[in-house]
């Protein structure tokens, strides 16, 4: 009897090991070590809604020509986008009137099927294409894919990506800017060209609101929240308490390097982005922001969390076995 049990354990272990080895071999054979991003001719251009002229976007590899780029990924956001843009523009226009500050907003419509593009284009008509541009993706790529293409089309020395729902108060950008200044010992508002080549990231955080979330959410959603936080800590990022807040500020060079290494294009892209930054030893600060839950979220409590959990496991195992790799600043500079 004991002999049979030992045989079962032996063959069971051998079988599990063989399956794991086969999975690793398959990943190494199928996965591309570095991201390959396809962008159609249409997606490389934006339209001037005044005269319908198609204009080529600049590249993240170009020198910056404005202080700040604001990237707003939007999927079917016709109802929420306007309010967010109004708050954003109130802040940015006030600042631009008081000095030499220049900004741009890029709304990335991620294959939207509603009137998101039309809403964005109305703002473009009012502000002009130097301040406002719409990047219309031909198919839905996921939030990470939309943010990546927006970042790679930006002109800013500093790049902010902000969610279209307006859940984070836009004036909290000032908090992120103060934190960025302490990291790089420089103020991009005074000297944006020199700051653009430095490396730093500041992430907005809702971690201080966790107790309130526990008090107001169902037990099931609380378990999901803590479960996701544990998986993030276990598989990817240990230095940041809130990886998912859609309010993150990058220097141009940090954005270029992180997004060119990014594989995940859906909900868990923030986690991989910060994992890449930690691997490359890019300085990161986490700053508490004012945040309010807005109706109309595209995140479904069960399916989205399961998808993110699977993505986290895949992020870890693919990097662990070497199926995915990260290019350093020097590696990327050689391939330009």
UniProtKB/TrEMBL annotation:
Pfam families: Glycos_transf_2. GO terms for cellular component: endoplasmic reticulum membrane. GO terms for molecular function: dolichyl-phosphate beta-glucosyltransferase activity. Its EC number is 2.4.1.117. It comes from the Eukaryota. It is found in: Endoplasmic reticulum membrane. One of its GO terms (biological process) is protein N-linked glycosylation. The chain crosses the membrane at residues 6-31. The keyword Endoplasmic reticulum applies. It catalyses: a di-trans,poly-cis-dolichyl phosphate + UDP-alpha-D-glucose = a di-trans,poly-cis-dolichyl beta-D-glucosyl phosphate + UDP. Pathway: Protein modification; protein glycosylation. Residues 69-178 form the Glycosyltransferase 2-like domain. It is a single-pass membrane protein. Gene3D superfamilies: Spore Coat Polysaccharide Biosynthesis Protein SpsA, Chain A (3.90.550.10). It is an enzyme of class 2 (transferase). Keywords: Endoplasmic reticulum, Glycosyltransferase, Membrane, Signal-anchor, Transferase, Transmembrane, Transmembrane helix. PANTHER family: DOLICHYL-PHOSPHATE BETA-GLUCOSYLTRANSFERASE, GLYCOSYL TRANSFERASE. This is Dolichyl-phosphate beta-glucosyltransferase. It comes from Agrilus planipennis.
């Amino acid at each position: 009897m004991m002999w049979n049990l030992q045989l079962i354990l032996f063959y069971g272990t051998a079988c599990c090991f063989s399956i794991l080895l086969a999975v690793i071999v398959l990943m190494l054979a199928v996965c591309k070590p570095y991201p390959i991003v396809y962008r159609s001719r249409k997606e490389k251009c934006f339209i001037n809604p005044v005269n319908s002229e198609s204009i080529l976007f600049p590249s993240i590899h170009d020198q910056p020509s404005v202080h700040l780029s604001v990237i707003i990924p939007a999927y079917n956001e016709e109802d929420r986008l306007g309010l967010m843009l109004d708050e954003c523009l109130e802040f940015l226009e006030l600042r631009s009137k008081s000095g030499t500050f220049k900004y741009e907003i890029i709304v990335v419509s991620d294959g939207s099927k509603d009137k998101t593009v039309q809403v964005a284009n109305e703002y473009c008509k009012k502000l002009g294409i130097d301040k406002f541009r719409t990047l219309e993706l031909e198919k839905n790529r996921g939030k990470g894919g939309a943010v990546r293409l927006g970042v790679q089309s930006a002109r800013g020395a500093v790049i902010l990506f902000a969610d279209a729902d307006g859940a984070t108060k836009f004036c909290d950008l000032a908090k992120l800017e103060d934190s960025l200044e302490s990291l790089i010992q420089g103020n991009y508002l005074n000297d944006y060209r020199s700051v653009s080549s430095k490396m730093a990231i500041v992430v907005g955080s809702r971690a201080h609101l966790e107790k309130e979330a526990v008090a107001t959410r169902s037990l099931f959603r609380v378990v999901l929240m803590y479960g996701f936080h544990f998986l993030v800590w276990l598989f990817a990022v240990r230095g940041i308490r809130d990886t998912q807040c859609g309010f993150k500020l990058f220097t141009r060079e940090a954005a270029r390097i992180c997004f060119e290494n990014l594989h995940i294009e859906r909900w868990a892209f923030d986690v991989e982005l910060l994992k890449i930054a930690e691997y490359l030893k890019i300085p990161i600060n986490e700053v508490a922001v004012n945040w309010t839950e807005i109706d109309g979220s595209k995140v479904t409590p069960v399916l989205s969390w399961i998808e993110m959990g699977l993505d986290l496991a895949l992020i870890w195992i693919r990097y662990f076995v070497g199926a995915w790799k990260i290019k350093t600043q020097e590696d990327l500079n050689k391939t330009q």
